[in-house]
Design brief:
Radius of gyration: 16 Å
Distance between the termini: 33 Å
Number of strands: 9
Number of helices: 5
Low-confidence stretches: 1-8
Largest sheet: 9 strands, mixed
Strand content: 25-35%
Shape: globular
Length: 189
């Protein structure tokens, strides 16, 4: 996995929006929050592809987490194809565990431990959160090459888009923020 560090790049905290030139079906119309970007590569979480087969209650049972109450509508997202068995929580900055939370940017933190799941399940977690399994990863220079080849568009991040919009609306909303209509995107240059 790409190491998260304190060095913030121009891309860290921004959103990637897949274009029709992205030929990998796993990233079709994907919206990815870039969590880390440095000389070693990049790491991001897909924020608009909820899993259909896995529910939050399933994860709580698997991890033996007792819960007093939890949001039954809490979705679990396909965060990316790398380490799909590993869980991540992208969340608002109102919840921070200094030992395990990593600052992505002012609007987002990333935490990957059982404690945050327990807190979310018991109603004392972050105000906004997105639970994901797996992540998207790029080696050194790979993300830059994909952006230059028009596989991705960069968009300023928006917590409303990441946390509150329905998943099926996120890609079009991101394009709208850029002033791009999906029908104007071409698969060839």
């Amino acid at each position: 996995m790409v190491e998260l560090n304190d060095t913030v790049s121009d891309y860290q905290g921004q959103l990637l929006l897949a274009t029709p030139r992205m030929t990998d079906f796993r990233f079709e119309k994907a919206v990815i929050l870039i969590c880390s970007h440095n000389a070693n590569g990049a790491m991001g979480i897909i924020v608009n592809k909820p899993t259909l087969e896995l529910k939050f209650v399933d994860i709580l049972k698997q991890l033996k987490i007792d819960s007093k109450s939890f949001n039954e509508n809490q979705k679990i997202y396909f965060g990316g194809p790398v380490e799909y068995g590993r869980g991540f929580v992208v969340h608002s900055p109102d919840y921070k565990n200094s030992d395990v939370s990593t600052v992505i940017c002012q609007e987002y933190f990333l935490t990957a431990n059982k404690e945050i799941l327990r807190d979310i399940a018991n109603g004392c977690g972050p105000k906004n959160s997105l639970l994901a399994l797996g992540y998207a990863g790029w080696g050194p220079g790979q993300l830059e090459e994909e952006i230059l080849s028009d596989s991705w568009l960069l968009c300023d991040s928006d917590p409303h888009l990441v946390f509150l919009l329905e998943p099926e609306l996120k890609w079009k909303d991101g394009l709208s923020k850029l002033g791009v209509k999906p029908s104007h995107l071409a698969t060839f240059g």
